[in-house]
Write a structure and sequence with these properties.
single chain, about 180 residues, alpha+beta, two-stranded antiparallel ribbon, 6 strands, about 35% helix, about 10% strand, binds iron/sulfur cluster
Length: about 180
C-alpha cells in the first residue's frame, strides 16, 4: 500500500545523499539517535546477526556495556558512539545492511535514522531538514539546499513512504490505546 505524506517545504527542498560518492556517512558520526523501547527490542533480537558485522572495538563495547548510552534524547537512551562513529557503523549502517538482506532496508534502524532528513516541526508537520529552515542547527553539507540541484521530492521518496507508514502505525497504536 502506498501512502502519501504532506511535507511543508517539499517544493523547494533539495537533497542528495552521496554516501559512497564522496561522503563516508558523516550523519552516523556522532549523530547519536535515541532508541524507543520497541526499536531496542528489535535490535536485541537481531544481536546474533549484528555482532559479527561490527567493528572489533564496537563489538567489544557492545558486549561489555551494551549499545545504549546513559544519555537521553526525546526521552529515550541514545546509541553509543565509539571512535566518533555510531556503534552500529562499519563502512555503512549494519542495521541497514541486515534490513536489506531481509528486503526491508529501513525496518531495523532507529526511526530518527530511517526518517532522516525528514522530521516533524512543533506543529507536527513533516518537513525536510535544510539549512536556514526551522532553525536547523546541524552543519551537515547535505542539508545545504545549495549543495545539490536534486529535488527532495525525487530523492526522498523511500523516506517519505517510510514516514507515511510510521505515521499510520502511530495512529493505529493510538486507536488501540483508546
Ligand atoms: S543506527 Fe545506523 S544509520 Fe543510525 S547513526 Fe547508527 S549507523 Fe547511522
Amino acid at each position: 500500500m502506498s501512502l502519501s505524506l504532506p511535507v511543508v517545504n517539499l517544493e523547494t527542498a533539495k537533497f542528495d545523499c552521496i554516501f559512497g560518492r564522496g561522503c563516508e556517512g558523516i550523519c552516523c558520526q556522532n549523530g547519536r539517535p535515541s532508541v524507543e523501547p520497541e526499536e531496542a527490542a528489535q535490535i536485541e533480537a537481531l544481536l546474533p546477526r549484528i555482532k559479527p558485522l561490527l567493528r572489533p572495538d564496537a563489538r567489544k563495547l557492545l558486549e561489555k556495556d551494551g549499545y545504549l548510552s546513559n544519555r537521553k534524547k526525546l526521552g529515550f537512551p541514545m546509541l553509543r558512539v565509539i571512535d566518533q562513529w555510531c556503534i552500529f557503523f562499519n563502512q555503512g549502517c549494519v542495521l541497514h545492511t541486515i534490513g536489506m538482506e531481509d528486503g526491508k532496508s529501513y525496518a531495523y534502524k532507529p526511526s530518527q535514522c530511517a526518517l532522516f532528513p525528514i522530521q516533524r516541526n512543533s506543529k507536527g508537520q513533516w518537513y525536510v531538514r535544510q539549512w536556514g529552515y526551522e532553525g536547523e542547527q546541524w552543519d551537515l553539507f547535505c542539508l545545504n539546499p545549495a549543495a545539490s540541484p536534486v529535488p527532495a521530492s525525487e530523492s526522498l521518496r523511500a523516506e517519505m513512504e517510510y514516514a507515511a507508514q510510521f505515521e499510520a502505525n502511530e495512529s493505529t497504536k493510538s486507536d488501540e490505546n483508546r
